What does this fold into?
Amino acid sequence: MVQFSPAQRRVLVLLAAGEALLKAHRDIEGSKVYRLHPLDGAPETVERATVESLVDAGLLDSNKKFPAATFMLTDRGRACTAVLITGNIRGLSMRTSPLPGSDKQAT
It folds into this structure.
């Protein structure tokens, strides 16, 4: 089983439950800040290392939009997160495996 830090676990559980959105806000100079936007309440900053470790592990990917990219659970992220929560995963996710009959990745 994968071991998650408390910060990683919190991000994954909130995303999977559909209770928050994770965004990377970039300014014109290129500085990037990660913020978790709960459906109820003020956004909170998430450490860069927390988000990058989840992306590097293949658990999150983004829509790569400027100036605010939105992160979603990948198929692997959904599978890993399923052991952390009870109930259905309701958050945004993306299919990361090829579409049947296609050599292209889904987006």
